[in-house]
What we know:
The structure holds 2 protein chains of 2 kinds. By secondary structure, chain A is mostly helical. Chain A folds into 2 domains: 16-131 and 241-263, no CATH class; 145-225, no CATH class. Chain A contains 11 helices and 2 strands, in the order H-H-H-H-H-E-E-H-H-H-H-H-H. The longest helix of chain A has 31 residues, at 154-184. Chain B is of the alpha/beta class. Chain B has helices at 46-53, 80-86, 103-113, 118-132, 148-160, 178-194, 206-212, 230-234, 237-242, 249-261, 272-289; strands at residues 3-12, 20-30, 35-40, 61-66, 69-72, 87-90, 166-170, 198-202, 215-220, 223-228. In chain B, helix 3 (103-113) packs across helix 4, helix 3 packs parallel to helix 5 and helix 4 (118-132) packs across helix 5. The longest helix of chain B is centred in the C-terminal third of the chain and has 18 residues, at 272-289. Chain B is globular and about 70 Å long. The A-B interface holds A 1, 3, 11, 61-62, 65, 68, 174, 177-178, 180-188, 202-203, 206-207, 210-211 and B 13, 16-18, 51, 54, 56, 81, 84-85, 87-89, 91, 94, 96-99, 109-110, 113-114, 144, 158-159, 162.
Amino acid sequence: MNNSMVIGQYVPGDSVVHHLDPRTKISVIFFFVIIVFFANSMLSYGLLTVFSLGAVFMTKIPFSYIAKGLKPIWFIIIFTFLLHVFMTKEGEVVFELFSYPIYSGALVQGVSISLRFFLLILVTSLLTLTTTPIAITDAVEDMLHVLKKVRFPVHELALMMSISLRFIPTLMQEAEKISKAQASRGVDFRTGPLKERIQAIVPLLVPLFVSAFKRAEELAMAMEARGYQGGEGRTKLRELKLEKKDYVTLCVFAFVLIGVFITRN
Amino acid sequence: MEISFDNVSYIYQPGTPFEHRALHQLTFTIPSQSFVAVIGHTGSGKSTLIQHLNGLLTPTSGVARIGPYVLQAGEKNKDLKSLREQVGVVFQYPEHQLFEETIKKDIAFGPANFEVRQEEIERRIYAAIDAVGIQSDMLERSPFDLSGGQMRRVAIAGVLAMEPRVLVLDEPTAGLDPKGQQEIMDMFYNLHQEKQLTTVLVTHSMEDALAYADYIIVMDQGELYKEGTPLEIFLQPQALNKVGLEVPEIISLSSTLEKEYGITIDYKKQTLEELAEMVAHQLKGRATHE
C-alpha cells in the first residue's frame, strides 16, 4: 500500500473520537467547515485551532503520522501564504524583503488564510482517520433518509457507495500484485520517457479491469444467492444510536460555534 | 546462480501505525543449481522473501546476493532489469497477469521487454509452449478464451520465454486439479534438470517439497525456523507441528511402520506402489524366518 496515502485511510483505534456516532462526526465537520470561513479575529481563529488540535489529541493517533500524511498539502499551504504575503497591499509597510515592501495586512492575511486551509484539511481528514468507510456510508444513508419521500434511491446509493469503498483496498492490492508480476517480466513503470511509461500502464490496466468485472459479477451472483432484493424492509446489523458522548460533543461544538460568532470582529 | 541472504530483515511501512515486520535477520545460502522448497504457515514471510530474489523489494537491513547482483538497504541497484531477466518469477495465480490480444503476444511480452531479437523470441515462444503443453495452433487465440488451467500454462510459458537462470515459483499449482498439478510440477522439475536452473519453490504441499526439493527452508513469523534436506526436516514431526505444518503422508506412514512393526524402509522417492511392495517383501521375509 502507498505510504503517503493518509487522507482517506482509516487508522483503527479505541479513542472517544473513534467511538462517536458517525453522524455526530459528519455534522460537526460539516458545520466546522462553514464556520472556519466566518472566523476573522485572532481569538476566533485561536478557538478553532484549540478545538481541532484537541480533537486530534483525543484520537490518540500520533500527530507526526497525521502531519506526514498532510505532506502534499503543505506545498499548497505555503504557496497560498507566499501569494498573500506578496500580493496584498494593506496596512503599513513592516519591512522590506530585497527592496520589496511587505505590508502588515499581508502577513495577517497570509497567516489567517493558510491557517484556515490547514484547519479545514486537518479536521476533515480526522473523519476518515477515525471512522470506517462502512460507518460513514451508514451515517450518510441515515442522514439522507428524508430524501426517500421524494423517491430518491437512498439505500441503493448507499450500497453503491459502500461497495466501491469496500473494493478500493482490494483493487489497490490487486494493482500492486499485477504491477509486481509485470515488473518481473521487465516492465519499467518508474523510469524512461513519458511515452513508454504511459504504454507500461496497459499491461497493468487490462488485467485490473478483467478482474474487477469478474469480481463484480461474482458479487452480484453471491448477493442474489443470499436473497438480496433491494432495500425494502431490510433491517440493519448495526443500528446507529446517539449516546452521551455524542451529546457532549455536540454541546462542546455548539459553544465553539457561539464563541466564534462572539469573538469575530 | 548462488543465492545468499545475510541478516536480511524487511519491514513494511516503517514508522506508521501499520508497521509490520515481515522478515527478521534471515541468513541462508542456496547453492547454484539446487532445488529449494520454502515452506511455512500463511504469513510466515515466504512471499516477502521471494520478492527479494528479483529486486521487487530491497532489504530494510542486511544484504541479499543473487549471483553477481547485490541488494542492500539504502542502495539503488542499477542492474535491476538484468537481474529480472535472470530471475523468472511465477507468482500465485499467474493467469491474472495476462493482458495481450493473443497468446503469442503475451508470451513474447517478457523477452521483448528485455530486448531479445525477434527470431530468438519466435524460437523461445515455441520452446515455451512445448514445455507447458499448449498446441501451436492456439497461439493466435485470445488468452481470455482459455480455461483456467490453460491460462495458467500460458502465463507460465510467458515467464519461461524469458529463459531465466533462476526460477522462482510461488505456489504454482494452487487451484489446479490433481492431474494438472502433477503435470506442471513434473514440467518444472524437468526444466530444472535439463537447463540446470536454480529453483526456489514456495509451497503448502509437503508432498511436493519432499518429492522435488533437495533442500528445504522452513519459515516461521519472518524467521528461519529450520533448514535441511527433506528427510532431515520431515523426520521432526513435533517441530513441524509446532509451526502449523504437517509431515508428508508417506513419511508418517513409514515412521509408524517402523515404530509399530519394526519395518525399516529408506525413503528414496518411492511411489506408493513401490512402498507397498517393499513392505510386503519385508513382511514375507519375516514370515519365512519364523
